[in-house]
Amino acid sequence: MQNEAKNNPYYSRTDRTTVNISNEEWKKILSPELYAVAREAATERAFTGKYNEFDELGEYFCAVCGNHLFRSTEKFSSSCGWPSFFEADKEGVYYKRDLTYGMDRVEVLCKRCDSHLGHVFDDGPKPTGLRYCMNSVSLEFVPDEQI
Ligand SMILES: [Zn+2]
Description:
- The chain is of the alpha+beta class.
- The chain has a single domain, classed as Peptide methionine sulfoxide reductase (Metal Binding Protein, Guanine Nucleotide Exchange Factor, Chain A).
- Helix content is 14%, strand content 27%.
- The chain has helices at 3-6, 23-29, 32-40, and strands spanning 58-62, 68-71, 75-76, 84-85, 93-98, 105-110, 116-121, 131-134, 139-143.
- The strands form two sheets. It has a six-stranded antiparallel beta sheet with strand order 3-4-8-7-6-5. Strands 2-1-9 form a three-stranded antiparallel beta sheet, with no helix packed on it.
- A hairpin with a 5-residue loop joins strand 1 (58-62) and strand 2 (68-71).
- The longest helix has 9 residues, at 32-40.
- It starts with a helix and ends with a strand.
- The relative contact order is 0.23.
- The mean pLDDT is 94.
- The structure holds zinc ion.
- Zinc ion binds at residues 62, 64-65, 67, 110, 112-113, 115.
């Protein structure tokens, strides 16, 4: 478990009940880096995230609430500077149209805690053709042997 999750009473990898917590409360629980991305839709700088160049086998969970988001076999090596996946756990994420910064994008959010994770683009590899461009700080990786 990341340090992050230790002081977070809402974190659970098994409880799928929706978490409805105010940003005021999240601010007390999350690190400033995670809060900025998850609750204010900030984007971490390209090529700085811990999972950008990372290819171990395991599962990726939401760093805010522990919801399952991705499997390592859905991750692919992309040159964009952020960890990229071609498929997401359908129970893990939902989508919102994002028209900020003069762009027309699709925002990816955690279904359980409503936190911002990143965006999805249609220039990914087969079989889906999708590229889930995620912030490392929003993800918590757990290797297979610890699942
Ligand atoms: Zn979450």
